[in-house]
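Structure (tokenized):
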């Protein structure tokens, strides 16, 4: 038997250390939070994606009474990107969260389904997508690629 480890590198930034382009992306994500529909969980999620053509597209979570059948912010943002800019890849995205029921104290990473969807988008355009995770007034983390969120990923190459 051999034991192996995954090492995932990420950078942590103080809010005042963020590059201007990332601040703008964060602002788009924060502004989109108001459009989240989360009457059941009271947990709002927004995702802002900067495409390689510098367009910014946002998405928010949308819940429904069949609770697990809601749609995550990342999936909605990716769908909007694919619909509005079908042949344009992404270079970075910012995910932020808020709650109507409690004080959010730490960042949240995408769920497993969203990680798979984000990886498919990254793989499709053969360009790494930087992932920024942050909330207002707290340190922000950056992963260089969606691949960092999903070790041992199932991709198109597994189907060949």
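Design, position by position:
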């Amino acid at each position: 038997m051999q034991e192996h480890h995954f090492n995932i590198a990420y950078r942590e930034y103080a809010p005042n250390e963020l590059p201007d382009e990332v601040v703008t992306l964060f602002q788009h994500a924060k502004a989109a939070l108001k459009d989240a529909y989360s009457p059941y969980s009271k947990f709002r999620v927004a995702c802002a994606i900067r495409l390689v053509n510098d367009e910014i597209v946002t998405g928010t979570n949308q819940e429904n009474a069949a609770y697990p059948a809601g749609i995550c912010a990342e999936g909605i943002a990716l769908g909007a990107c694919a619909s509005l800019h079908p042949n344009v890849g992404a270079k970075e995205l910012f995910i932020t969260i808020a709650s109507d029921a409690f004080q959010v104290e730490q960042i949240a990473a995408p769920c497993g389904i969203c990680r798979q969807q984000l990886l498919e988008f990254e793989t499709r355009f053969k360009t790494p997508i930087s992932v920024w995770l942050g909330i207002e007034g707290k340190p922000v983390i950056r992963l260089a690629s969606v691949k960092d969120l999903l070790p041992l990923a199932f991709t198109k190459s597994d189907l060949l």
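Reviewer-requested clarification: The first strand starts at residue 11 and ends at 13. The longest helix spans residues 112-125.
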